[in-house]
Design a protein that fits this description.
3-stranded antiparallel sheet, alpha+beta, 3-stranded mixed sheet, 2 domains, OsmC/Ohr_fam, GMP Synthetase, Chain A, domain 3, 36% strand, 6 strands, KH_dom-like_a/b, 31% helix
Length: 140
């Protein structure tokens, strides 16, 4: 896997990134750090990627278990250390999974498997952060 990140120049703290699969992403810093708040912060991108990684796992595990999953949203709330390096110290994942007759045990299993075995991003972040998760099921 390879990505490239390029600074957009001396007028601020914005960067453009290109993924190995050819997609472009913008990132920017906070105004107090010289940014213009025009794009997500790099650490927000870390959380976004982690949310995508674990949601992907949960949907795939439920589908493979022949569950009638119709939607999966995950909200991540994180806390960071007060001093440098400002690593994540706590991250809570809340899943809202919708479908027809979803079994709570199947959803709990999918979430646990993602966090304990499959989601490389959340497993990596668990080296510095306390990871917790919860879920709710919405019929439909």
């Amino acid at each position: 896997m390879e990505v490239s990140v390029s600074w957009n120049g001396p007028s601020g703290m914005s960067f453009r990134a290109q993924t190995g699969s050819g997609h472009m992403v913008s990132m920017d810093g906070a105004p107090e750090g010289g940014g213009h708040n025009l794009a997500p912060r790099p650490m927000e991108m870390v959380l976004l990627g982690t949310g995508g990684c674990t949601a992907y796992d949960v949907v795939l595990i439920l589908k493979r278990g022949r569950e009638d999953v119709r939607g999966c949203d995950v909200t991540l709330k994180a806390e960071r250390a007060d001093t440098d390096p400002k690593v994540f110290t706590r991250i809570h994942f809340h899943f809202t999974v919708s479908g027809k007759n979803l079994k709570p045990a199947a959803v709990e299993r999918a979430v646990s498997l993602s966090h304990d075995k499959y989601c490389s991003a959340s497993i990596m972040l668990a080296k510095t952060a306390e990871i917790t998760h919860s879920f709710e099921i919405v019929e439909g």
